[in-house]
Please model this.
Amino acid sequence: MDMNFSKEHLMARQLFHDFAVNEVEPWAEQTDEGHRFPKEIVGKMQELGFMGVPFPKEIGGQGCDTLAYVLLVEELAKVCATTAVIVSAHTSLAADAIAQFGNETQKEQFLRPLAEGKKLGSFALTEAEAGTDASGLNTKAVRDGDSWVINGTKVFITNAGQADIYVIFAMTDKTAGTRGISAFIIEKGTPGFSFGLPEKKMGIRGSSTCELIFEDCRIPLENLLGREGKGFGIAMATLDGGRIGIAAQALGIAEGAFEKTITYVKERKQFKTPIAKFQNTQFVLAQMKTEIEAARFLVYDAALKKDSGKPYSVEAAMAKLKCSQVASDVTRECVQLHGGYGYIQAFQVERMMRDAKITEIYEGTSEVMKMVISGSLLR
Amino acid sequence: MGINKKSIFVFAEQVDNRITSVVFELLGKARELSEKLNAVVVAVLPGYQIAELPKDLYAYGAHKVLISDHQALREYRTEPYTQVIAEMIRQYEPQIVLFGATSIGRDLAPRVAARIHTGLTADCTGLRVEDERLRFLMTRPAFGGNLMATIVCPDHQPAMATVRPGVMVKRLPEPDAMGELIPFEIDLTENHLFTKILETVREEGSKKLDIQDADILVAGGRGMKSAKGFEILRDLADVLGGEVASSRAAVDAGWQEKAIQVGQTGKTVRPNLYIACGISGAIQHLAGMEESDFIVAINSDPTAPIFNVADVGIVGDVFKIVPKLTEAIRKERTN
Amino acid sequence: MNIIVCIKQVPDTKEVRIDPVKGTLIRQGVPSIMNPDDKAALEAALRIKDGMGAKVIALSMGPLQADAVLREAMAMGADEGILVSDPQFGGADTWATSATLAAAITKLEYDLVLAGRQAIDGDTAQVGPEIAEHLGIPHISYAKELRIEGDEVIVKRQFEDRYQLLSAKMPVLVTALSELNQPRYMTPRGIFEAYREKQVTHWQRNDIPVESENIGLKGSPTRVIETNPKVMKAPGTKIEEDVEKSVQYLIEKLKEKYIL
Model:
């Protein structure tokens, strides 16, 4: 179902598909096995403008839209969930936070290089003691003369260490609860800003996930993003957009596993028959297909709403909730349909099953999605 | 002198004063057609200092040779060759003109066809004269080799065709055959259409036996996994007295040279024996080898399309089977 | 510098299949792509543009849906796209196609005309040289390398066992092999601009200064009278045994055939 996609969206999808198959897929296994950040692929994507798809041309972006960005993440995720999340965290978290809340100087200084693909971005909210409870931040930012001084540690940060530009959240007023949180922009290389070692993870193993460590780290006052005390709102609003990206990633993971499984069940014979002829296989595939299509509607709809300036945070939450569930369910079923081969690395679906799980957790767990959705219902 | 019957022209391509082997195949076919059409076969031979060449052309079937010996024709260039052939055609009005579908033929023939305004059919694998109306039918693959098309050129003369090397059959040569030599004079003044040859560089590897001339080919595809994987094929080819060939996949992967690529965009071969190892048998590949007399396929995938054309299909691991086969053949040979 | 690139929209013949029941070509659902040799020609033009500045015009003759390859060309960096399309041009063989395209080209300014060597559906490699003949300019085919030097084009022209370095004064037509280069990807921006900000010029019959006797099916000296899907050789025997038995079987068969 094409939702009457315009010709330019269809051609863009074809571009992303070709790139994913030719440039990304051959490296997916190595990226996973080596827990290796795919630097070369990121370099190619930066050159082609893939890191700035939804941003206006005036600020160095590609001048497309959220829908085109969703198609990119989806096509990438079909072959490599790691590559997809690198783009997503950079685009709809780091860069979009600055696009929505930055002043002109900040956009010129930070958003432009992100959109042009000259620098990579990262978004850091989560701490050891502040996951779902994002208001309980311990990282502090204190004004001192012409600088902010940052102290604290962030955990589980995507693109950490590889990114050049970080959007972070810190307490500027501990007494004010969520209204005491502010957002800041900080660059790699700033004295006092260092990284922990990359985590070894269940999935998206090539994604660089590290701690950010701030020790008396001084940044210019001008690096305050948005107004002091408004950081929590900035984080929540940005995460709404980020969820659309993660939903697209989850959708792509499900589709990638599904496509591989269709091929497999036609080739695999047992009892002298391709297993595709067995009703169990057929019914399971039919159910998965329906789930995938339903999930697809939700994420494209959220993207279209964002692009047309309509409220979209509930739609984004529903999209992420559904797509991530579908990703986990579908990849698990796909492994099962592969039988023993589903457990073997070379067949890829086991990797996709491991990759899928995180989509139910990061950028807001499925539980948080339910909080957002029910919150809007029961106001 | 001259040609006062119907004639079939065959472009006698020569490089470094050696006639390209496809020309002899074309002469064989032209003689066959000439019998049906009651025509003479004329080899047209542009070149420089080529007096030694006509005797081979007679030997393989030419009744006459139309020769244009001129310094401007020493090395192939589109324009002087186009001028010569076009003038020859204008003067002698042949029914049919055949070129080998070589990199020269496929460059020259369209220029000539456009100059004299006639139809040209490319890369033909079949030429015949239909019995009743004496229509000249040209058959060629299209759609990447998925379709065979039959073409006619009803209202323009001559009907021109480029013909795929390795398809038509040479006659047995008659070394004492004689024919008529017709000199063709032409004034070839350089004009803006003439290109300048700055340099000609012969490339390495052209000394190896051309796979199109080999009687036995051992070919490898993606299933050989690497350039090193081809070593066992070399061993098998050696013990059989054959040559190694390659599918497009292995050439694209950089494991083998394009000169030994078999297929729609490579070479067409019809050896006595073709052993396809680790080759899936995509239509593009089959187009280049399915006319082989005896096809053996070795592949671990029982559903590989190559088995549809193989006379003998072995489902198994090439890396286990080929070395054992080489050993067994060596034993047979020494017994 | 002005460069015209002739491109063709073709079915992706790698994806074509034969209907097992009817024995006919299944054309439906086969994706359409820019002919690979033409894409290489376009990339060559764009590299000249990147290096020394040039205006690159993509030109295509085909049905209205061929608009897509012109958009693709513009998304890669071509400055303009022109579609020559009219029912009267349909059914054209290489003479009529080249006559029509050459007539279209005479309306434009050009120093260099680039085209792919052959299309993966027609596989003739004739249109390029025939266009050059109609235009009265030299052509060089099988270009493996290409560069501009002053008012000349220097081309490495590939033969089976050698290559020539040829030079010709522009205007020249050069045909490119897909091995000439690795074409660039489009960019998302290029795609959106190609569709939202640019136009494809559409030239119909009356826009093309070509004689009626040279166009379409009627203007074609050659005619296809029949097409058949390839008749596949009948399959022989196939065995799946252990290595020893397989080798023995093969040796017997080779002996039967007097190869051993």
Q: What stands out?
A: DSSP finds eleven helices and ten strands in chain A. The radius of gyration of chain A is 21 Å. Chain A touches chain C through 19 residues (CB under 8 Å).
